Give the backbone structure.
Amino acid sequence: MREEQLAKALILLFWCFLLLFPMVGWQIQAEGARYTVELYTRPLLILMVLITLFLILRALWQLVTRTPPVQKFSTRLQTAQMWISEKGNLFQHRSLWGLLLLLLILFPLGTNPYFLDTAINVLLYITLALGLNVVVGMAGLLDLGYVAFYAVGAYTYALFNVNFHLPFWFVIPIGALLGAICGVIIGYPTLRMRGDYLAIVTLGFGEIIRIVLNNWDSVTGGPNGILGIRDPTVVLRQTLGGFPFQNPLMVKYMYQYYLILLIAVATLIFAYRIRDSRIGWAWVAIREDELAAEAMGVNTARLKLLAY
């Protein structure tokens, strides 16, 4: 058993290394006629050390909780072991999430703008995937045009910010409202569709949004996009420039990173809580058998629109 746990730990470390290696940046510096290549490994090393420490603690905990008790005190020790094992599994689950959150919070302190820019995109797509999981994973609606809602929100902020100089925090509810309206627009005509037919309709809706945004030059700027979009600002951002970072680009990426990290964590908690709610179970019922769910009194039309 211990050999299997050690093998799994080593495989997990190797797999994490393979997944994170593409994020490692290469910097080529010219020194006369010679070129030196520098490998950015500090964030990767920090991550590997934290994962190694967690796996070591996990192996020690399993060793303690699975050690056979002495025969003389077998009953009491077995009861104590069962209690420790039960609490330990809960602590281990929470400690894993806590370690991951701590790693994400401390990540900008040992990295550079390249890694931060990559991490911002990763967290952004994680947030989008959590939203897509509600539509496809829970409700079972094969939506291939989900990115259109993302485009509506993004262009809403860009247009309001550039043309009317509205701040980021003011435009967030407006973008969410317009995205919800687009969800109703695409969801209402497709209430009776399912499977491949629903996928084709949603794919067409996504293509319509893409073509409109790429060709409406007077409003969206076409393929060049909208220029002059201001970054989200907050009072705390002004204090980041003095300690411990003096690089304005680093301060900008740090603020954007913590902002999208906060949004991603909030989205994750919301998706986790709604999965075990009454609405979440109704979505699962629709996904498994829509006719049976409707026969049991589930309002499938309202819940489908709510998922969108």
Notes: The longest strand covers residues 26-31. The beta strands are 26-31, 34-39. The two ends are 46 Å apart (CA to CA).
